Amino acid sequence: MFPQQDGERSWIKERLVSMDISSYTCVYKMEASNVGLDGSVNTLKLVDYGEDSTLVNWSFEIDPVEALKVLVKRAS
């Protein structure tokens, strides 16, 4: 998924925060990883796009300072 300089496989531990079937939305949080995304909150929403099509709307919130710490640590 995310290439690691040391050859280690990337991994992410996620937790489902909420799921709303009526709006086709789920929210999950990345609780731990080796890719610098710890603490990010992600939302997936399926939107009827007409003519047998579906739009997948993915959004996320992340603390850039925490992500930067992982990148700096990886570079040293």
Could you characterize the architecture of this molecule?
This protein is an alpha+beta fold. It has 1 helix and 4 strands. It has one domain (12-75): START domain (Alpha-D-Glucose-1,6-Bisphosphate, Chain A, domain 4). The chain has a 4-stranded antiparallel sheet, with no helix packed on it. A hairpin with a 4-residue loop joins strand 1 (12-20) and strand 2 (25-33). The relative contact order is 0.19.
List the helices and strands and how they pair.
Elements lengths: L11 E9 L4 E9 L7 E10 L2 E9 L2 H12 L1
Antiparallel strand pairs: 1-2, 2-3, 3-4
Could you provide a short overview of the structure?
The protein starts with 11 loop residues before the first strand and ends with a helix.
Low-confidence stretches: none
Determine the fraction of residues in helical runs and give it as a percent range. Answer: 10-25%
Instruction: Please give the CATH architecture.
Output: 2-Layer Sandwich
Write down the secondary-structure element order: EEEEH
Which shape, going by the Cα principal axes? elongated
CATH topology: Alpha-D-Glucose-1,6-Bisphosphate, Chain A, domain 4
